[in-house]
């Protein structure tokens, strides 16, 4: 069997941008270098997909052992079907140079049913396109499908027993046959365009635009944007819709932006600041900062949102506090959750107790803290009133930017903590430290928690997380200090 040219992921890449597909296949050396955070996200594993197999237990997994064995999996799938196997995991099909691997294929009285598993809580348009491609390849390669369903995570599921997920409740199965059958002609046409592009000598001439970010951030950004202005991305006050509109109109540079007619006074104010290279701080913020009580707490914290619930009563993707640090002029401390569900209530209670006694709290992202605290209150209703009191006294530096209280030229639109520190404090934060982002701290916590006997006071990983969270608090205080001057 000849080797395939497109797979599900490369087809979706081409669906987003034909140039991205071409570069991926023909000029992969131009790809951006992955950051440690991106690498950490890729390493998150396939636990949700593996768990979904339990909905239909007893199947045979035909995943290839290596990329060179995809065609072997196609043959094995055909053989298993012919032999009367009724449940196949990673069932692999190829048609017209496109190869797809379906998570679960099941034979019932109705015929063959296809299930594709997604680890998210909502179905996106991209999932429908992906399902439509699979339907196209499977049915054209000779297997009739009675139904095709997308399987995704039920965000209202609550874990009833630690370590024991009820997969029938955890997953939602949604039949999407009608929607994806309606897309078949479009899929056939698109496969032809993608295959055609890959026969060309040069990459297609495609301008940058919102497709560089949606549905996924393109990994050839550095190459395509090398000679393009990125000033548009320095206006955090623009809404996503406004930014997308300007992107698609190729209004990217200061020159073009200043000629635009604005309906967003704050974005216009940020643009003027960017043009004159002069930061601004409102009088209101100056008053807030000059009257901050001396024992104000500067808080750093790390939380996780695990797809698979962990402690009894948890929901999928529920925010769970893992570590926090706060500094005042009197104290400085950092604590880490032990990872044992029985200890969580005491850990959270301690956190609330510490914060309730401080007059004001400054964090980088108030919205993130508020979301975490609200979920804690839902889990521990006895803490609700104290949590409300805490939320009422929190200031968020990121929210000050978004509300127009201050702006430094060059702040990036997504206001990632590290970038904001870099711009305002002129430092490379966390340089030389073992951890430099929340996702790395969360991954380290998970690894530590999955191993046994690692959770002792001398553990290096534990120290690394505590040092990381302590630095978040320190940098938050430094940001507030710069704004005070
Ligand atoms: S950066 Fe944009 S234009 Fe360039 S390949 Fe990616 S999506 Fe296409």
Could you characterize the architecture of this molecule?
The chain is an alpha/beta fold. It is 44% helix and 16% strand. The protein folds into three domains: 6-197, Lambda Exonuclease, Chain A, CATH 3.90.320; 210-279, no CATH class; 280-485, Nucleotidyltransferase, domain 5 (2-Layer Sandwich), CATH 3.30.420. Strands 1, 2, 3, 4, 5, 6 and 7 form a seven-stranded mixed β-sheet that branches. It starts with 5 loop residues before the first strand and ends with a helix. Residues 17, 19-20, 23, 206, 208, 211-212, 218, 220-221, 224 line the site of iron/sulfur cluster.
Bound small molecules, by name, code or SMILES, are: iron/sulfur cluster
Q: Using the coordinates above, name the CATH class of the largest domain.
A: Alpha Beta
The CATH architecture assignment of the largest domain turns out to be 2-Layer Sandwich
Helical proportion? 40-55%
How many beta-strand runs? 14
Whole-number average pLDDT?
94
Number of alpha- plus pi-helical segments: 21
Beta-strand share of residues: 15-25%
CATH topology of the largest domain: Nucleotidyltransferase, domain 5
User: Which stretches are poorly predicted, pLDDT < 50 over at least 5 residues?
Assistant: none
Main sheet specs:
7 strands, mixed
Which descriptor suits the 3D outline?
Answer: globular
How much is the radius of gyration in Å? Answer: 26 Å
Computed structural class: alpha/beta
What is the number of domains? 3
Output the CATH homologous superfamily of the largest domain: Ribonuclease H-like superfamily/Ribonuclease H
Distance between the termini: 70 Å
